[in-house]
Write the structure tokens for this entry.
Amino acid sequence: MLIKDRIAKEKGFVSLEFFPPKEKGAWPSFFSEVEKLKRINPLFVSVTYGAGGGTQAGTLDIVTRLKKEHGFEPMAHLTCVGASKKSLHEFLNSLENAEILNILALGGDKPQDADASFTENEKFKYASDLVGFMSKHYANFGVGVAGYPEKHPTAVSMEDDLKRLKNKLDMGGDFAVTQLFFDNELYFDFVRRAKKIGIEKPVIPGVMPILSLNRIKRIVSMCGASIPAGLMAKLNEADKKGGDSAVEKVGIEYATAQARDLLDNGAPGVHLYTLNKADLCLSLYDGLML
Ligand SMILES: Cc1cc2nc3c(=O)[nH]c(=O)nc-3n(C[C@H](O)[C@H](O)[C@H](O)COP(=O)(O)OP(=O)(O)OC[C@H]3O[C@@H](n4cnc5c(N)ncnc54)[C@H](O)[C@@H]3O)c2cc1C
């Protein structure tokens, strides 16, 4: 079923995001973590594509197994920077054969280790190029796109970035999933500004629980999200007193309250960045008392 149709039917849902483990040897434990999350009954599960140094190759196998063996409705992330028409057709035809008709269409980033031979294909530079390709060749697919409440790090301005989002949605995107953020007012303001320029499609907030200070500092430095001063002070204090386990406790409590507030104030659902950790998601989910 297309995710956009599921979104239209269900309010206050939870969806989950995974990344493919780099080593195949880690797959069995990955799938047992995933199986534990069945009781959340997520509206959909998404799998990243080469993000943060992860593999691209695993995405197809993992979404296929999530559907066939675990009964989830998967969405494959797909980036287009540096892709050829041929490689996109291969990936999308394989998805179609596996009866998976949902993708998150992304521009993506030039790989950090790209050498001179990496040629950016001018046909596929931004997510909107992939959305256009989907509308032309795979109109039967459902297409999500990414949105940035604090703007994309390379965007020229908040206004320009929002117009780029509108363009992706007007060209065939069905909904947006946001970058992680920690201040809900940023999301609500983003949705208000989006509505003002005519975006009516659902904007699903992305929530990431903080598990370690070093890890979250690295993530926010890459994606441009900000951590409110009050939260940062609590995390620093927890880190001094009890290290990662104390930081994780603060992180989960914060993410649970954040997700609850988002749902209570009109977000269509929440998209959890699971970090492939089932227990963390289950404790957050239980705290939501849905
Ligand atoms: C929910 C979510 C999931 C993600 N999953 C992955 C993943 O699985 N794999 C991965 O590698 N990365 C992933 N990313 C990161 C993403 O690939 C990067 O942020 C990338 O830099 C931008 O891709 P995009 O599709 O979000 O942006 P795009 O829409 O391509 O925009 C990128 C930048 O270009 C600007 N822009 C857009 N269109 C134009 C235009 N026509 N002319 C000029 N400027 C333009 C935008 O304002 C923005 O600054 C994810 C991000 C989010 C929020």
Remarks:
- The chain has ten helices and eight strands.
- The beta strands are 13-18, 45-47, 74-79, 102-106, 142-147, 175-180, 203-207, 269-273.
